[in-house]
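Contributing new records

If you add data, match the layout below exactly. Sequence lines come first and carry their own label; structure lines follow with theirs. Keep one chain per record. Anything else will be rejected by the validation script.
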Amino acid sequence: MAAVDNTPVNLTTALASFDDIYSPRIVARVNDYDVRIAHTLGEHVWHVHEDTDEFFLVLDGQFDVALRANGDETMVALSKGDTFVVPKGTEHKPSSPGGSILMFEPSGTSTTGDRHEGEIPDHVDGTTGRDLT
């Protein structure tokens, strides 16, 4: 469960409590936003969030974000401690050789966006976040 009142959440302990990849857990809520953590490995799916930016902080390992705009594709390579914001309306596809991330996005935001390309792989959890248990 997410932190309540003055209860701190240790991110290392929280990440150790589950193994699923691309299945974010909600560790806190700030106003109408979720603070989510997730393990990353392999490729996600091309998707877009039409009405919201998506904030990433790499907690461990490497996390890459491919971006598509105006027919061009670019790759942003992120390492531990790096942050990156995918602007709303930008098609993107995360991938990782392994690691963990923290995301900050409006509550109810789907991990596979408002629309996505192709089938959702079995290792990607199409969710709006799961409570940390």
